[in-house]
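Most newcomers find our protein records easier to grasp once they have seen one. A record pairs a protein's sequence with a compact description of its fold. An example says more than a description, so a record of this kind follows:
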Amino acid sequence: MFNYLLILLLINIKLIICDETDKCGKNCVEGSKNFYDKENNGFIKQYENARSSYKNETCENCECYLNVIENDLKPFQNGITENMLEACTSNRGVRYQLINEKWYRSKDCMFPSRCEGVEYFLINLKNELPNLDLCINFHDWPQIEKHHKKLIPIFSFSKNSDYYDIMYPAWSFWKGGPAIKLIPNGLGRWDLGRISMEKSAEKWPWFKKVEKGFFRGSRTSHERDTIVLFSRENPDLIDAEYTKNQAWKSDEDTLGFPPSDEISLEDHCKYKYLFNFRGVTASFRFKYLFLCKSLVIHVGNDWNEFFYFALKPWIHYVPLSNQATKNSYRKLITFLRNNDEIAKNITKNGSEFIKNNLKLEDIKCYWKKLLKSYSKLIKFTPKLNKKLILVKNQ
């Protein structure tokens, strides 16, 4: 008797749910299917639109990045004066001069390994450039906001649209990247990192990868909170945890859970979908993730490095809003699982672009074109500032 009443109750509940949700008169399962088809079609439309409008331009001689140089230098078309560079104080940047094929710089550098990372490229180009005078910022954040009354030509590795800073390839392409327990001396030697990542990618071909999203990183931005919380509720879809950083004091700083162990960049390759978030500004991991031959999901588009603009959403990576909800993460991972060929195609495009167009010689190429273009805007003859010291290892 009890079982009979239970069955009747379940039938009534189903009828009520159908009555509330089935507006078209079809059964609930079909209504649910139509809902997911709509979401599915929305993603497919973005993918198809991106493909139809994409022009696969050449990147020979770093040509695909030249528009970044043009846009960054446009505010300085009236010329760069010596007076402008006098604003290069120690809290903003390090003053560099190239005089007769020798580099000189300010005596004090707050981040010596970062300076060395940039100086590797400068020294390589010293015989190919005219005399120069410039200011390089080694902080994580840019310096010259657009509401700033004084236009100052400061080079920074990352910025958003609110800043006038001139982007240059980050020091971490050679030395001075983030130092973590697994890389105590800091991320660097992009040329060697590429080899290591490609070897790991070979161990984890597409069909062997774990079919879930993955993220590991410290809580440098609250934009990362949603994915961590979603992962705790849906570990079958996403594996995302916070690691410890220098600001960590208690589990409260990692959303109430103990910090996770760090995971090497190479071990990211085990997973099919890799999430990239901004840190303080742009994230150094972004370029590495592509070399896993996993699908990169790039969250937010505010903060950039010079090469970001050549990478196109739905062609080289999948974009996701930095305001994405838990439901947004669920919908996206579900879509990717159900559309493996699309995911695989985007993955191939992204990994090949980074492999072919972001080699160490491409970084040298960008530096050369950037500094030559900058030199044409200098309206004075650079003369050695006696307060500067000779850069080592020339």
Q: What stands out?
A: The first strand starts at residue 94 and ends at 99. The mean pLDDT is 89. The radius of gyration is 25 Å. The chain is about 35% helix and 10% strand.
